[in-house]
């Protein structure tokens, strides 16, 4: 009979050997430059990755499993933060010498607009960019990981088919005609308190113009703003709200498959579906640049884009089979129509016009 300590040491040795073999088997992907081997080799001496994002564990799990299988020596730690907090935390920590993010991912598109070309992000040219649409790399150092729809969500048990809105104009009409059902029971991202909400509503209302503002003012006092899509969906499921508008698809799609998901329903708004570009960047000066490059390249690869789709995000690549994921960008475009896609990108107007926009938003929410 083996001594328990000896058996334990043997198990540790076997595990280490397995990890070493897997590490040695990591090869340069087909079509990549031959010197990419130096990036893989350089990552072995680094300290893993820290990713600040506005994505939940359910969104991350498939992609992280795939990445770890390919590069098992790279430990990835993800922090689920608010979109604005992703950046404010990193900016506070940068240069302090403390451990901080190696990769930033968020829907705080005003921050990505500010970073565009300012030198704070590494201008890494991923070998995968040729397989992606132009908006995947809109500015030096700024990438788009996914383009995710913002949808209408509702409590399917509390709203009849006739009460369920099909778009923002539909919601405004139904709520104005039925205060008893909708007053105080509508939610959305608060554009005055949330960078994600600011980018979403700035894009939508710029596209809809005076009509959009009039509809918002009509039901603004009935709306209670939130800063998290997950919180909105939970409160809709419990009946605290009956409907949410411009809710991030990545928060609702995985929730539909969880216990209680049958209480929720959703719709792509028929008068304009916001497609939120989810920004991604590698901060210049990161302690783990090789590992960060490997991660970005994997996230953009066919395998990586398929796995982010399984996690509820919307892949950008047109070679991802929609049968393997919930939605693709191209599939949503066919569903809602190209003319109904409102792209929430990294427009510098988000910076220049933010203050007057927020004041106008507050007035509309007060019914003015």
Structural overview:
The structure is a single chain. The protein has 15 helices and ten strands. With 368 residues, it is an alpha/beta fold. The protein has helices spanning 4-25, 36-43, 57-70, 83-93, 109-115, 168-177, 179-182, 195-219, 229-238, 249-252, 289-300, 302-310, 329-336, 349-352, 354-365; strands at 49-53, 76-80, 103-106, 143-155, 186-189, 223-226, 243-248, 264-267, 273-281, 341-344. It has two domains: 46-147 and 276-339, D-Maltodextrin-Binding Protein, domain 2 (3-Layer(aba) Sandwich), CATH 3.40.190; 150-274 and 346-366, Periplasmic binding protein-like II (D-Maltodextrin-Binding Protein, domain 2, 3-Layer(aba) Sandwich), CATH 3.40.190. Helix 8 runs parallel beside helix 15 (354-365) and helix 11 (289-300) packs across helix 12. Strands 1, 2, 3, 4, 5, 6, 7, 8, 9 and 10 form a ten-stranded mixed β-sheet that branches. 45% of the residues are buried. It holds the Pfam family SBP_bac_8. Residues 1-23 form the signal peptide. This is ABC transporter substrate-binding protein. Keywords: Signal.
